[in-house]
Amino acid sequence: AQKITQTQPGMFVQEKEAVTLDCTYDTSDQSYGLFWYKQPSSGEMIFLIYQGSYDEQNATEGRYSLNFQKARKSANLVISASQLGDSAMYFCAMRAGNQFYFGTGTSLTVIP
Amino acid sequence: DTEVTQTPKHLVMGMTNKKSLKCEQHMGHRAMYWYKQKAKKPPELMFVYSYEKLSINESVPSRFSPECPNSSLLNLHLHALQPEDSALYLCASSQALGHRKETQYFGPGTRLLVL
User: Fold this and answer.
1) pLDDT one-digit tens code per residue, B95-104
2) pLDDT tens track for B54-65
3) For chain B, first and last CA: distance in Å?
C-alpha cells in the first residue's frame, strides 16, 4: 500500500530558528517522487521542494531543504531561519506511478 | 511562469443552482486535476485529465461534471449540490501524467458554499 504519514498535527517555532517537519512514506515502487507544499490560510497550495527516489543529494531550495533518508523512508522538510510568513499548513506528498498521495499535513506557527 | 488561475474565488449557490468553476494554465502542461479540500484536511483527488481526455475519475458523484475544452482550460460543472459539497476546490496542472518528477502546480482555489 502506498501512503504518506505526517505525525505532527501542529508545530511551533520561534522566529529565526530552524524547524523540521516530519514525513514518512511507504511504497513498493522503486521510482517515486517526494514533494512538499505550503498552504497559507488563503488556500493556495505552493510547491516548495522536490526529491526523486534516485537522487543521491538532498534537495535544497533557498531556506528549504529536504532531509531524504531512503532506508528509513523519510523525507523531512527543514526550514531554516523561520519567518512569520512561514506560518501555514505544510503537506508532504508522493508521486508513485499515476497516483499522487498527500499526507494529513502539519500546521506550523512561527512565534515572534 | 508557474501560474494556474481559477475563477471565481468564492461561490455561494443553492442546491438547485447550476454553476461552473474554471481553471486555466498556460504552461503547456498536458495533465490537469481537480481536487476537493475540506478544512484542515489534505486535498482529495476528484478527476484527472491527460491530453484532454478524462484519465482518472475517483468515484465522484454525477452532480460534479468535468470538462476539458482544450489543453489550457479545465471546467467543473456543478448541479444539484448538497451542503456537504461545500469546500475549497483546487485545480492543478503538471507536464504529463505519471512521471515521478511531475510536479503539480496549484491554482488559488475556489471556496464553494452550498446553502
Assistant:
1) 887 766 789 9
2) 988 888 999 999
3) 37
